[in-house]
Amino acid sequence: MTARLTDWLLATFVPQHGDINDPLVRAKYGFLEAWISITGNVGLAAVKIVLGVTLNSVSLMADAAHTISDVLTSGVVLASFYISAQEPDREHPFGHGRVEFMASLAIAVLLGLIGIEFGRTSSQRLLDGSQVTGSMVAALIMFLSGLAKELMALVSIDLGHRIDSSALLADAWHHRSDAIASVLVAVAIVAAYLGYPSLDAVLGLGVSALIVYTAWQLGSSATNSLIGEAPDANLVGQIITTANSVPGVLKAHDLIVHEYGITKAVSLRIVVDGNISLTAAHKIAHQVETKIRTVIVGTAVVHVDPNGLHKTKT
After folding, report:
1. Which site from 104, 135, 186, 300 is most exposed, i.e. has the minimal number of CB atoms within 10 Å?
2. What is the pTM for the complete model shown?
3. 118-142: per-residue pLDDT in tens?
4. Are strands 263-272 and 298-306 parallel, antiparallel or unpaired?
5. How far is 126 from 132, CA to CA, in rounded Å?
6. Helix (H, G, I), strand (E, B), or coil: what is residue 304?
């Protein structure tokens, strides 16, 4: 169901959405997710405010304020994709793709703070014995709000997987944390009516641990990408296989991959017959560079070693 919804959204709002290696098309995926989030959060907040005033519900009014604050996170996503889609310049010859990693880190930090605050509130309620109050109507509204936020999370996850975007996956978990919180409030209100007031705090501590753990995972991944982590083993194998497939290449080795978001800068060494001419060796290297650029989006630089003289790094 989510995939069909995502397909319809892409077909409607992102022309040429199949060309995800185009930085501008990729950026439109991010814009779509951000505007879905902004529109959805503003709409949910408006409903909660109206119903909160009508029902005189403090919990609905408080959750409306929290929902409005989520627009800021979507703004981070919007800005990051706008910047990352900019053309390379003198100061940034490989583009601005790593801005997306910075956005992922920022969202992870915000998510971690939400999780910590969630845990603090839950602990305080457990110690004080206080409970969530509200009407059954408010509980129903919170539950439906949670379902809406989970749908937004699922769409964000689908879009994030389609373009391998850490920022969209991080924002998806932000939506999901809100969905869990809203459903938890609804459950707590019902539990209080049924005589189980402490259930809210107990569930809250578990959810807090989940949110903090997720924030740590997202933040660690974004930090590793910013620092420069080892390339994916599948990508390494694909590049080496591609280089070895070029006639005249005896061996490809010492591969280095620098990632700048969707753009990658690749360098490697190839071994060729030491008896061929310099012109022939240069031609083989150029063919390898050209073929690698059909596998990646970015640049490739190939150094030639004559057979018998290369030393592979261990």
Report:
1. 135
2. 0.76
3. 788 778 877 876 666 667 887 888 8
4. parallel
5. 11
6. strand
